[in-house]
Amino acid sequence: MRAEEILELLREVKNPFTEMDIVSEGLVTKVVVEEETTIIYVAFARSTPQTPFSMAVNWPLQARIIRDMVKVLEDKLGYFEIVDDMTLQRYYPIEEV
What does pTM read for this prediction? Predict the structure, then answer.
């Protein structure tokens, strides 16, 4: 699947706070399609003020967005990752510790 097709699928995912789709809102910053893997970069750290309160308020919204992204993509893509474009924190797949 091409990056443009993935972005079109991700337009179905809405930010629960603004009700805008995450692509138009600029939360999806880049999609890299490789042979076996697709990496989707999101701008969560960049768009969240670095105060404990803001981070605590935004985390449930970000978790919901990730869950919605996975629901939209899981049947259409093979292996994919969702990564923060600034911190490179991996949100999906969730690492088992």
Answer: 0.88
